[in-house]
Each structure stands twice: as structure tokens, then as C-alpha cells.
Amino acid sequence: xxxxxxxxxxxxxxxxxxxxxxxxxxxxxxxxxxxxxxxxxxxxxxxxxxxxxxxxxxxxxxxxxxxxxxxxxxxxxxxxxxxxxxxxxxxxxxxxxxxxxxxxxxxxxxxxxxxxxxxxxxxxxxxxxxxxxxxxxxxxxxxxxxxxxxxxxxxxxxxxxxxxxxxxx
Length: 169
Ligand SMILES: *[C@@H]1O[C@H](CO)[C@@H](O)[C@H](O)[C@H]1NC(C)=O
Ligand SMILES: *[C@@H]1O[C@H](CO)[C@@H](O)[C@H](O)[C@H]1NC(C)=O
Known about the structure:
Number of helices: 4
Keywords: Copper, Glycoprotein, Membrane, Metal-binding, Signal, Transmembrane, Transmembrane helix
Helix content: 25-40%
InterPro entries: BlueCu_1_BS, Cupredoxin, Phytocyanin-like, Phytocyanin_dom
Strand content: 15-25%
Pfam families: Cu_bind_like
Structural class: alpha+beta
Distance between the termini: 9 Å
CATH topology of the largest domain: Immunoglobulin-like
CATH superfamily of the largest domain: Cupredoxins -  blue copper proteins
Bound molecules: 2-acetamido-2-deoxy-beta-D-glucopyranose
Protein name: Phytocyanin domain-containing protein
Strand order of the largest sheet: 4-3-6-7
Organism: Adiantum capillus-veneris (Maidenhair fern)
């Protein structure tokens, strides 16, 4: 049954390839901070940030023009006090993209004038890919790209293929 074997191997290669692609790229989402309002005054960023679930590999896009605003990632303490001198990350060139590369808590403020104390700030918690609950995929909205396929499901499928393949050979 050489032909049968070839077909199974072909299937395995296709599925593994698809899985690798999904885990690398398609899973990542980019969130436009503040939706259509972008990064500016008079937006409730706490309410905005609560709408999504963030995973490692996702990114935030801050839409603004220089020099009106800046994007600073700060510590929890500096976030509370709106302290700008100690930033972990800082950019003011306009249209900042920030990669959420690792799980954990992130705090962002605007470093211009009194914008931070006027609530131009928010915090998000990036979950580990495995603990994220895919249960509530929220309403699809134009200000976010949603995650389409859960890699966990894909992995289970791959694990299912292994005994199938050994049974056939
Ligand atoms: C912003 O939204 C949060 C969450 O919905 C709410 O608790 C808070 O009171 C709002 N802040 C203002 C200034 O409206
Ligand atoms: C910033 O991003 C917005 C939205 O993607 C775009 O329309 C605008 O042209 C960008 N501005 C600059 C200076 O790149």
C-alpha cells in the first residue's frame, strides 16, 4: 500500500505546515488603541482596553501625530503618579506600534503635559497563549482583528494524527 502511505504523509505535511503558519502569523491581532479616536484626549481608554483579550504576539497601534502626544510604557507605580522620567519604552514620532511580545501586565501613559492625569492612560494584561479562554470572541468590530483559529484545537488534531499514522504503517 505504498500509495496509501504517500497520501498519509502528504496529509501530515500539509497539516503540519498549516499549523506552523497559523501559530506564527495568523494568530496575531493588532488593536487600534482608542478605536477611531486613536491616541488623544477625551477617550476613556480603560473602557476601550477592557473590550479585548490580549495574547503574546499581538500588538497595539497608537494613532497620533507628533508632537501632540507620546507613548510611554511605564511601571505600575509610575502609572499611578503619571511619572514620565522612568519609561520602559518611549516613542513620540507619531503612529507608534507596540508589540506585546510577552505575557504580563503593561501600563501605558501619554508623556505630554498633563495628558496622563487627564486619563490618557490605560493598562492591559497579556495572557499566556495557553490560559486564554477562547470562549467569548466578542462582537467583531472594525477597530480590531480577531483571532480566527485556536492553536490548541490544532494541536489536538495533530496529536490525533500520530496514532492514525502509526496504525497505517
Ligand atoms: C471609564 O470606563 C470605566 C469602565 O467602563 C469606568 O469604570 C470609568 O468610570 C470610566 N471613566 C470615566 C472618566 O468616565
Ligand atoms: C498614521 O496612521 C493613520 C491610520 O493608519 C494613517 O491614516 C496616517 O496617514 C498615518 N500617519 C503617518 C504620518 O504615517
